[in-house]
Structure formats: C-alpha cells, structure tokens
Design brief:
By secondary structure, this protein is mainly α. The chain contains 9 helices and no strands.
C-alpha cells in the first residue's frame, strides 16, 4: 500500500513539473486579456449572448409555431382517456414536433427562400434578412390570434394600433399568439373530454345501482374508453382536426 502511495505521489509530482514546463513554454501564446480593451469585452458579451440564445432559442421558436396547441390537446386527450403513461411523454412530444413541422413547412419554406438563402449568398444585410424572415411568421401568428388578445396587449403596452402587419411588434404579437393558442387548445380539450366524461358517469351509475361502490369506476371505464376511441378512429380524427384548425 505504501509502495502504491509513493508511486502516486511521484506521478503527481512529475505531472506538475510537466505542466509547469509546458506553461512556461506556451504561456506567451495563451495570454488573453479580459479587461485590457473594449474589443475583448465586446467579444465576451457576444459569446455569452450567443450561448444564451442557443439554450433559450428552441423554446422561443416552438412558442411561435403550432407546437403549443398540439402538445396541449394531446395531453388533454391522454388525461381524458385515463391512460396517464400511455402514450409516454416522448411519443406525445415527438408526434407534436412532426405535426408542427408538417403545418409550418410552408412558412419555413418562405422564410428560407426570402431571407435565409439571400443572406447566405451575401445579397441582403442582416437587418433586411430579419425583416423578411419575421414577416411570414407574423402572418401565421396573426391568422391564429384573436383580435381581443392583440388589443389587450396593445393596451397594456400603451401602444397605438399599427397600420399594417409589418408595423406590429413581435413583443406584442408573440404573447397575444400564445394566449390565443392556450385558449383554443383548452376549447378543443373541453370538447375531447365530453364523451369520456359521459362514459365515466354511466359506469359510475351502473356500479352504484349494482352496489359495487368499492370498485373504482376508472378501472371499468378505461376499456370502454379505449374501445370507443379505436372504433371511431380517434387518432385520425384528433390529428386531422388539429391540422385543419390551422388552415
């Protein structure tokens, strides 16, 4: 044991010596001044903002698409059936993502053709590319947003009503769009819940008449819910209705 301990100390000492030698050789090339000039601070701030955008950007982009409505409706459907872990969260989110890509493909194609491709070819500036890319997204969000939500956000922001869509700020349109999506998703979820609640009520009444009050109605109603959902081709109806609701 002592032999291993001494060997470890010797290896650690050799590594420290080697590190010191490398540092003496390489130090002149690795010195970076953080507070030496404004250029270094600007670069550091840009890197920090870029890393922050990478972590927050996907969630921001998903809230500007049809993903919010789809994933909420699918969650309502799973709770209404009573199968809390089937399908699992990964399947629900994956289905919502693929349906989002399908619905948003015309918008993404227009953004690529009008903004991203000319910007990569150095035909337009960054500001022009941002304006061109934001216009199709604004058109999609505006078509799915209730006017009352936009008016509410404008009144809270104390901003005058814009003359056209290009003058409407994203800071006003995005929260109004999210509120409208939540409202629409809850309306669809309410309609989905109704037939399954009726099945639960019927099963509860039958069990009460039979005197089987100890048996939970959920256990008996779950097979009937699944049978009804399969017979009416529920996944086709829900997915088709969701996609048609964005047209």
């Amino acid at each position: 044991m002592r032999k291993y301990f001494l060997s470890g100390l010797l290896a650690l000492a050799l590594s420290l010596c080697a590190t010191g030698a490398v540092a003496q050789v390489k130090t002149p090339n690795l010195i970076m001044s953080i507070g030496g000039g404004s250029g270094d601070m600007t670069t550091a701030v840009k890197i920090f903002l870029f890393m922050t955008l990478l972590s927050v950007g996907p969630s921001l982009l998903l809230t500007m698409t049809s993903f919010t409505r789809i994933v909420i409706v699918l969650s309502f459907l799973r709770q209404a059936i009573g199968a809390h872990q089937s399908p699992p969260n990964q399947v629900v989110i994956g289905l919502a993502l693929f349906m989002t890509f399908f619905i948003m493909s015309p918008v993404f194609k227009e953004v690529h053709e009008s903004a991203i491709k000319p910007f990569l070819d150095d035909k337009i500036t960054q500001d022009v590319a941002f304006d061109r890319a934001s216009l199709p997204i604004k058109q999609f969000m505006f078509s799915q947003t209730h006017k009352t939500d936009i008016e509410m956000m404008l009144s809270v922001a104390k901003t005058e009503k814009p003359k056209d869509l290009s003058a409407l700020s994203l800071s006003v349109l995005i929260p109004a769009f999210i509120l409208s999506e939540l409202k629409t998703a809850f309306e669809i979820g309410f309609l989905i819940y109704l037939p399954f609640v009726l099945i639960d009520m019927i099963i509860s009444m039958v069990l009460l008449v039979m005197g089987m009050m100890v048996l939970p109605p959920v256990i008996i109603s779950l097979p009937f819910k699944l049978m009804l959902f399969v017979l009416v081709d529920g996944w086709n109806l829900v997915a088709g209705s969701l996609m048609r609701s964005f047209q």
